[in-house]
Design a protein that fits this description.
By secondary structure, this protein is an alpha+beta fold. The chain has 19 helices and 10 strands. The protein folds into 4 domains: 114 residues, Acyl-CoA dehydrogenase/oxidase, N-terminal domain (Butyryl-Coa Dehydrogenase, subunit A, domain 1, Orthogonal Bundle); 106 residues, Butyryl-CoA Dehydrogenase, subunit A, domain 2 (Beta Barrel), CATH 2.40.110; 155 residues, Butyryl-CoA Dehydrogenase, subunit A, domain 3 (Up-down Bundle), CATH 1.20.140.10; 175 residues, Butyryl-CoA Dehydrogenase, subunit A, domain 3, CATH 1.20.140.10. The N terminus is likely disordered. The structure holds flavin-adenine dinucleotide (FAD).
């Protein structure tokens, strides 16, 4: 690897191709490359959250939605709500990477962050991506400033994950001037104060279609606020449409193409959720570190105990890895947007296409980020002992608030199935050649294994080689399962889940190694030493997990000699070099404890 890396090098690896291609640290985007403008932007968002939101978290958590509305207005004035919207519609037109830093900060504001995300994401983007020019001019400037607040009505009592099975109907009037909407939506974020609803309904019985529905329309009524486990400051109600007349010009996109709106908006939503929860994981890790430094037992701070250091280090490691995967993907999408813009595509159109290209990575990130946050909030409660179980401390609220992230924007089961399903579909459509390497791997298994990590000179080179080899384990298992079940692979959900976990772990581990390599190249190997520790500890777990998930999958569909052959292959492809993870975690914990905050 070269000592210095070309900063402007672009990553041109296609969506999902990380599984079969090597990525180059020289082109990976990492938070260390943040520019001055992005720093200022992030700082502005941080100050807003710290000064305006944090002092009121208890009021917000008690369901003071008037305060949430005031804060949304303030966020709008600062440009936070319209940051990523094009300037011609009143936004700031910041690029994808800059927006990621903003999401990270907003992700540290508990319930309020959910209100912002629903408004700026699922509430606003359908109009930006699928609205007519007239609709964009009419609604986007108000949504950018917060003068208008938006909510997104997809879910119904009978249709959640199976969103297209919605029963809400929209019937065109005889004179063609308006639609009449009848139906019931459930779990609608921001519904208590929204000015507009993005509503999905079936036209002519089965043409799933989007509409922009002003909240002031007659015959809309709201259910009571849901009594939720967490994010209590976020307004969540049922919305009833009982003969609601909507002007025909409020149709969003094309009749029968509502699924495109619903699903494409979710790609970006999943990416952003990961950026937000990564911010949340940092905040929670800081909370745990501070408590561990303050709390004394047996005449010493509990931060001095190895068991606590182990937890703090793991929180830091997983958060840093999740951050690495987030910004790696941010850079990929950002680069793709720029490439598409050069072909003459508008910025917003390019963003939509780019997010769709990296839909596999977006699904991976959604699962990774939300499960890292859940790990962190759980360990934070544990570090707090009894106080973690008390609402007097923020650990309990963070624990409750985090849980929703595994449920919305597609549950983590759905996202796991999607990640693997999309990859296999790309392979079947010959968009991604997974089957040739999968067959080559089967052949490789019949050859004599080479011992040691050949050709592995350089910073974390043998670790990178181990990741590349672990990818073979995924291809081995997924390739054999796809061969066996063909199109019915979708019905073998447990195998899909095991494959998804292997995929997620490998993407995450590789992202960490690439980032540490980039730091070493830009700042020197000494500066990157602790990041190498992080990457190695995570890799060690990844190899174990890839092996155990692969083993369970293989044992479910292979028998006899074929099974033995594949299990032998899995073992060979997930071999870890001995590494003292306890000592590494202690070094990581020391850095966190000495700084009294997340500082990686
Ligand atoms: C606080 C909150 C805010 C929300 N905000 C909004 C909003 O603003 N707008 C909106 O439209 N919706 C919103 N939702 C709804 C949310 O998107 C859904 O709850 C989610 O999609 C899951 O749907 P469901 O609750 O019906 O669960 P179900 O779909 O019934 O799922 C139940 C379980 O079965 C699993 N499952 C379902 N299908 C499959 C399958 N094919 N294979 C394997 N497992 C499966 C799920 O993973 C889950 O574990 C919100 C929900 C909550 C709780």
């Amino acid at each position: 690897m070269e000592a210095t890396l070309a900063k402007e090098a672009k990553q041109n690896i296609k969506g999902g191709a990380f599984l079969i291609e090597s990525s180059d640290a020289a082109s990976v985007y990492t938070p260390e490359q943040q520019n001055e403008e992005q720093k200022m932007f992030q700082q502005m968002a941080r100050e807003f959250v710290q000064k305006e939101v944090h002092p009121h978290v208890i009021r917000i958590d008690k369901g003071d939605h008037d305060l949430v509305v005031d804060l949304l207005n303030k966020a709008g004035e600062l440009g936070i709500l319209g940051a990523s919207l094009p300037e011609e519609y009143g936004g700031m037109g910041v690029n994808f990477n800059t927006d990621s830093y903003l999401s990270e900060e907003i992700g540290q504001s508990n319930s309020f962050g959910v209100a912002v995300a629903a408004h700026t994401g699922i509430g606003t983007l359908p109009i930006l991506y699928y609205g007519t020019e007239e609709q964009k001019q009419k609604y986007l400037p108000g949504l950018a400033t917060g003068q208008l607040k938006a909510a997104y009505c997809l879910t119904e009592p009978g249709s959640g994950s199976d969103a297209l099975a919605a029963k809400t109907k929209a019937t065109l009037s005889e004179d063609g001037s308006h639609y009449v909407i009848e139906g019931q939506k459930m779990w609608i974020t921001n519904s208590g104060f929204a000015d507009i609803f993005i509503v999905f309904a079936q036209v002519d019985g089965d043409k799933f279609t989007g509409f922009i529905v002003p909240a002031e329309s007659e015959n809309i009524s709201l259910g009571a606020e849901e009594d939720k486990l967490g994010i209590k400051g976020s307004s969540t109600r049922q919305v009833f449409f009982q003969g609601v007349k909507v002007p025909a010009e409020n149709l969003l996109g094309e009749i029968g193409k509502g699924h495109k709106i619903a699903f494409n908006v979710l790609n970006i939503g999943r990416y952003k959720l990961c950026a937000m929860v990564t911010g949340g994981s940092k905040a929670v890790t800081t909370n745990a570190i501070k408590y561990a430094n303050e709390r004394e037992q047996f005449k010493t701070a509990i931060a001095n105990f190895g068991a606590i250091q182990h937890k703090l280090a793991n929180m830091g490691i997983r958060t840093w890895i999740s951050e690495s995967a987030t910004y790696r993907t941010s850079g990929l999408i950002n680069d793709r947007i720029e490439d598409l813009k050069e072909t003459g595509m508008s910025g917003w159109e390019a963003k939509l296409v780019a997010a769709e290209d990296y839909a596999v990575e977006c699904a991976i990130l959604k699962v990774l980020g939300s499960e890292v946050l859940d790990y962190c909030v759980d360990e934070n409660v544990q570090v707090h002992g009894g106080n973690g179980f008390s609402e007097e401390y923020p650990a309990a609220r963070a624990f409750r608030d985090a849980r929703i992230n595994r449920i919305f924007e597609g549950t983590n089961e759905i996202n796991r199935l999607l990640a693997v399903g999309m990859l296999l579909r790309k392979a079947m459509k010959n968009e991604l050649d997974l089957f040739t390497p999968a067959k080559a791997i089967q052949k490789e298994l019949t050859s004599v294994p080479s011992f040691g990590q050949n050709g592995t000179i350089g910073f974390l080179a043998s670790e990178m080689k181990a990741v590349e080899t672990a990818k073979k384990a995924i291809l081995l298992v997924a390739g054999a399962a796809a061969q066996k079940f063909m199109k019915d692979i979708d019905k073998e959900q447990e195998i899909m889940m095991f494959a998804a976990d292997m995929l997620i772990e490998v993407f995450a581990a590789e992202s960490g190694i690439l980032r540490a390599q980039r730091i070493a190249a830009d700042q020197g190997e000494e500066a990157a030493a602790l990041y190498a520790d992080i990457a190695k500890v995570y890799l060690n777990e990844t190899l174990e997990n890839v092996h155990s998930n692969g083993k369970e999958a293989v044992m479910a569909f292979a028998e006899g000699d074929e099974m033995k052959f594949m299990l032998m292959g899995l073992k060979r492809f997930t071999k870890a070099e001995p590494f003292n993870t306890v000592a590494a975690r202690r070094r990581i914990a020391k850095k966190l404890v000495d700084n009294n905050e997340y500082c990686l």
